Every structure is written in structure tokens, then in C-alpha cells.
Amino acid sequence: MNTADLQSWEAELGRYRLIYGAGRVDQLGRLAREIGGSRVLVVTDPGIREAGHVAPALESLKQAGIATRVFEEVDENPTAQHVDEGASIAREHGADCLVGLGGGSAMDCAKGVNFVLTNGGRMDDYRGTGKATKAMLPSIGIPTTAGSGADAQSYALICQDGTGIKMACGDKKAMFRRVILDPRLAASVPRQVAAISGVDAVSHAVESYVTTRRNPVSQMLAREAWRLLETTLPTILGGTDNSEAWGKMLLGAHLAGAAIEQSMLGAAHACANPLTARFPIPHGIAVGLMLPHVIRFNAAHVGPLYEELRLAADPAAPPALLEERVRELRAIAGLPESLRDYQIPHGCLSELAAEAEGQWTAGFNPRPVTRVELLELYEAAHA
Q1: Contact, 329 vs 203, CB < 8 A?
Q2: Measured between alpha carbons, how far is 268 from 334 in angstroms, rounded to an integer?
Q3: CB-hemisphere CA count at 13 Å for 350?
Q4: Backbone angles phi, psi at 323, to 5 degrees
Q5: Sequence-distant contacts of 152-155: CB under 8 A, at least 24 apart
Q6: What is the dihedral sign for C-alpha 270, 341, 306, 186?
């Protein structure tokens, strides 16, 4: 796909429509009206407001005659309490449409609000898949970072209050009806945020390509995501404000998210989630620390697939270099190489492995893992 010739476009993708182009956030009001919205709750975070992205979104909604409220108390790892607070505001506002504006945290929180607002209870009640029995509100996702791919997924990742455990709460009714990919929004993020989210997106493409649930469609999506991300991440981290490059990153992250929706993830994410629950490690850094070791661990089972994926970005590349290329991208991003960089005690690795074994993504890893193998992965990442 050559995005240079496609500056602005829309595409129907099953349950939702994808709207792409610089400045397309100005279409938010029209799109909200299109799906029946008249009273909208915008879920975001203070950093997105400070970056200047909330104001144009609200202006577009105002121009369309839509009454709006903003819930911006979303943290990096949204909890069930954040969801309850957002649902309370949505209820007071009489919201009939939701907008998730921001990174994966804001979009996941918006989906969480949708669960609780329309079906009652708490987020713990929806852990798993398909547990919402009632209709849910139409919603719109607007990613401001090229990372999580939450805009393409039916799952909300919400931290359990008290434990910090990430709960995957999924239902097809929770998917956004419209998704806006506006390169201008992503181009404004600080380099460190772009680096962390970019490595996260790369990990999604790599893991979703080889899971036990992979299929031709998920692999097609992951392969194109890898091609866009692997070739573009160094460019955007070099400081470019080129709209085409940022558009490729947003589209790559979205396609990787769509691949996850089809095939799930693996051991790198199973190991990353306990790290972010126990220590102040951003998710993208945690998964970047684990991914090269997981690739090496899985290579005996799916090595040819890794080689196939690597060649999708560079057909002239030498074989069997996916692990090396992931390490290169992590180095370009300036992210740490060892768990020791976060002063994680070696003595807690066994506990982390036990927690990783219980993560939902562990069951989709192409090579079976128990806490024994997961401990080996943590040991390798700690060396």
C-alpha cells in the first residue's frame, strides 16, 4: 500500500468505518451525528488536552449541535475505578455516544465506560469475552499515538482495583463504529512517547503473526503492519513532522491491532503485564524488554514464519534476523535492554513467572509455556 498517493480516504471494515487523513478530526461532529449521537462523552486525559487535541474535537461536536461532556481523569493504566467515574459522568450527561480520544488508555477506558454504562455492574463482571448481554452505545475512536491498536479491537484492557492485574474485557458490541486516523495528532507526541508506543505496535505485529490462533487474514494484517512500522519507526524517531510517515505509523498500529483481534498475542505480553502491574514500567518498554527473548524461545517452532515476516519489510534482508532487527528498533527508540535497568530484584522473578502463567495471552503462544519457561524468559531479560 502506498499511502503517499492516498492522502485522505475512508474504508468500511466490517463493523466500523476507518477515516484517514490529516485534519480529519474536524469530521468528528458529522461522524457522531451519523451514528446517532446527540449527547457525547469524550474520554481522554490531561496530556491530550495540553497537546491541544481536545479543543478541535469539541469544536467539531459543537458545530454539529452536539452537547458534550469531557472525562479526562484517565491514567496510563486505567482501572475499574476510572471506568466507574467515567460511567457516572456519562450517566449524568445522558450520553448516547462515546468518543475515546488519546492513546490506548483513553480508548480502553471509553470502551470500559460503555460496558458499565449500558450493562451495569463493574468491569470485573466482563472479564473474558461476550459477557455484555445488552446493547451498547455507538462510539468513535481517535488514536493520538501509533501504538496500542485499541481503535481496531473489541477488547478493553482495564486494571483490576487493588491488584493492578490487567483484565481483558471483550465484546464485539464494544468496537468503535468509526475510527479517525489523523496524522497531525500523532505527530505532536513527545519523542519518548512515540518510541514507547512504536515498539508496542511492532510487538503486536510480531506476536500476532505466529500465535496458535493465526490465520491467513490475521497474518496478512500483521505482515502489512510490520512492513509499515519497521520501515517508518526510525524515520519518525529521527524527528520528522512528515504527515505521510506519521500516517504510515498510525495505519501500521491500527492494522496490528486488527491482527490482534483475529489472532491474539503471546508470551511477550504475558510477561509484560505483570511487570507493569508491579513496577513503574510503561507497557511498551516492558514488552520491548521481553520480545527478543520470546522470539528466540519460539524460533524452534515458528522460525520460518519469523523469517517470512522479516522479509516482508526488506526482501533483500539476510534470513533469520527478526530478533536482531527488533533489538535494533528498540535501540533506535532508546529503550532499555535489561530488567536490571529498572532495578527489578532477581528474587521476584519466580513470582512474576507465576503471574505471567495466568495471563490470557500465554495460552496463544506458539510454543507452550508454563511458569518454568516463563521464568527462563525473565532470567534472560534480567541478564
Answers
A1: no
A2: 19
A3: 1
A4: -60, -45
A5: 152/179, 152/254, 152/255, 152/257, 152/258, 152/260, 152/261, 153/257, 153/258, 153/260, 153/261, 154/261, 155/108, 155/111, 155/261
A6: positive
Q: Distance (Å, rounded) from C-alpha 372 to C-alpha 374?
A: 5
- In CATH terms, 190-382 corresponds, of 1.20.272.10, 1.10.10.10, 1.20.1090.10, 2.160.10.10, to 1.20.1090.10
322-333 vs 283-313: helix axis angle to the nearest 10?
130
Is residue 168 a contact partner of residue 155, using CB atoms and an 8 Å limit?
Answer: yes
pLDDT value at position 6?
62
Whether the predicted model's global pTM rises above the 0.70 cut: yes
Burial of 159 (0-12, 13-18, 19+ CB in 10 A): buried
The predicted pLDDT at position 162 comes to 87
Residue 91 CB neighbours (<10 A): 13
Q: Which residue has the cell 450493562?
A: 119
Q: Which residues does the chain have with pLDDT short of 70?
A: 1-6, 319-320
User: Tens digits of per-residue pLDDT, 329-352?
Assistant: 999 999 999 999 998 999 999 999
CB 364 within 8 A of CB 294: no
Please state the length of the chain: 383
Q: Which fold has domain 3-184?
A: Rossmann fold (3.40.50)
Q: What's the one-letter identity of residue 370?
A: T
